TrEMBL record:
SUPFAM superfamilies assigned: P-loop containing nucleoside triphosphate hydrolases
Binding site for ATP: G217, A218, P219, G220, T221, G222, K223, T224
Domain UvrD-like helicase ATP-binding: 196-554
Keywords carried by this UniProt record: ATP-binding, Helicase, Hydrolase, Nucleotide-binding
Renumbered residue ranges of the record's region Disordered: 1-28
PANTHER family (UniProt xref): DNA 3'-5' HELICASE, UVRD / RECB / PCRA DNA HELICASE FAMILY MEMBER
InterPro entries, sorted: DNA_helicase_UvrD/REP, P-loop_NTPase, UvrD-like_ATP-bd
Gene3D superfamilies assigned to the protein according to its UniProt record, in alphabetical order: P-loop containing nucleotide triphosphate hydrolases
Name this polypeptide is given: AAA family ATPase
Superkingdom of the source species: Bacteria
Record carries keyword ATP-binding: yes
Amino acid sequence: MTVPVPAPDLATPTTTDPGGDPDPTAGPDLAADLAGERAHLTASRAALRRMREHAEALFRAGQEVAGDAYTAETLGSTLSRRVAELADDPNTPLFFGRLDFADGDYHIGRRHVSDEVGEPMVLDWRAPISRSFYRASARDPQGVRTRRRFGFQTGELTSFEDEHLDRGEEYGTTSRILTAEIERPRVGPMRDIVATIQPEQDELVRADLADSICVQGAPGTGKTAVGLHRAAYLLYLHRERLRRSGVLVVGPNRAFLSYISAVLPALGEVEVTQSTVEDLVTSATYRPDGTATGTALVVRGTDPPETSVMKHDPRMADVLRRGLEGLIREPEDPIMVSDGSYRWRITAEALRRVVAEARREELPYGTGRERVRTRVVGLLQRQAEARRGDSPGDTWLRRMGRSAPVTGFLDRCWPAVTPAGLLHRLLSDPRVLAEAADGLLTDAEQAVLVWPKPPRTPKAAKWSAADAVLVDEAAGLIERLPSFGHVVVDEAQDLSPMQCRAIARRSEHGSLTLLGDLAQGTAPWAATDWRESLRHLGKPDASVVPLTMGFRVPAVVVAFANRLLPALAVDVPPAESLRRDGALDVRTVADLTVATVAEVRAALAYDGSVAVIAADNDVDPLRAALAEAGVPTATADQVDAGTRVSVVPATLVKGLEYDHVIVAEPARIVAAEPRGLHRLYVVLTRAVSRLAVLHTAPLPAPLG
Ligand SMILES: Nc1ncnc2c1ncn2[C@@H]1O[C@H](COP(=O)(O)OP(=O)(O)OP(=O)(O)O)[C@@H](O)[C@H]1O
């Protein structure tokens, strides 16, 4: 049975079956039921407030009683995090569902709430019992008699819907609560989906921490939602371990990150690192413990397209490795070290053995250099012991290690180098590059890499974004990076092999959730086969799981966008849509600007967000035309600005969604870049309710 959402009259709710037929027998009992649930909500809110006040009191007391600054800091950050986790969002109820078992019932919500004696009032959605809320079915009730879902408006319960699983009753995707959630107008940043996670999504969300998975999903199938909820789930289950190592979410750009940034805090998870790949490798991103994630490099330059493609090629990893190995030289001379009245001598042969042994160990280059230093000092120590009859102490060992002959030998045979220094060497001198790239890159390929006017020093270089990834690769060859415990990568189809390797270095000892859609690949190096990306990511055995049920784009719009699929040269299952509502309007217009302004005005008559999406070069004129017409507009990353209309360049819209999308001149979007049809596919699949396609030029062939 279902109480309609929103309930038209809260005092006397009517029940309907999912098809909408009223059940005349059910009225007063249901009103009492709803009143009982509301009372439980009020009591739960009070209990959460108490929990929060308790945490705040501990926080204040902790500041006063902590014995030293370190304890105060650790205790303080633990407790302030706890206070943040216990925040109550007045716009959503504390629970969204209830499970009735033979021996009692449980309310399921965003976080755990218990009463004064510790009895649970609301169970966290990630708790083991809560699993049945998402997975139980009429065929496999898992002990659940009744599953109840609640409808709500701004924090108040307005209705509920019961499935008597023990009587074989189940709504699946016809649930009215689910339908209402999917069809609600979108405003502001992305929201969590805890109340309506679908069984196939839940399987991915609750996959083991040890499992790396790759989700191939058509637009709007909930990939981003699944990835974020998996992060929250893993943090709940492995709190201490992941708090130490950290959880990282990687997204395509800052606009996307600001769109998704509210989801995890709403689920009580405030310590997840969110970053673009570029910020990750240039150290604009920090781990929860405050350490930078990459080498500090300022990106000030750009590359011609062919240079950029070359720099993202996986063969560059070998070029860098060989460039580094090329710095190591065979020792040719012995060294003599003065030590007071003694002089120690190490033969060239002994030095050669030390270097050869360190090379065989395949350590990171910087560690290898220190290993060689330690072994040379060891040889000196043995001589000293034999001659002096005692064992020299640590100060002596350090002094020998820093002595001019030892340092001089190291600088000749295993010289120190910075990551940027290595790349600077390779890109500045065609002969150095040729030595490292011999047999790997053709002469022509090498030629596009070398700087026409080499900067004098690494500091003076105008590094490009692609250089930053190469410098990061070099950093990984020189020193090992700490690994995150779990990494979620969204829009992963656009990662180059070298970017995949940058992420692999940060997830070497952790697991990965890779999310993407090969059909939405717009980068020149976009993936065409997930196996290859997974190989570069260091997780070749991860399973690739499809998601095909779309929750965003209405069926009529999906059918239109799917016409592009055959032209995209990728093997992906086509999207289906849960949404039967929605509208598509494809129109030839005489004046694009006039028509766009008129369409925006018409869209404002509906609820929800409106986006005009156009080729990047057309954005400013359209924005100006709307401003002139008195329509204020926001940019893609101003998700909280409260402005309903955004004008968004086609290249920035990936991962975002708007109720009403107006696509201005698709042919220009396609013409703007080599993978323009893929870009258009992304653009056409942003609409939640209505899509208007306005064009003066003919539509691109597959749509015409
Ligand atoms: N189980 C669900 N219940 C309610 N809404 C859902 C569910 N799954 C996904 N959605 C909603 O569908 C929309 C699309 O989800 P999401 O952005 O995660 O899809 P995606 O697969 O990442 O899309 P894209 O390929 O365009 O990046 C979002 O508004 C999301 O909240």
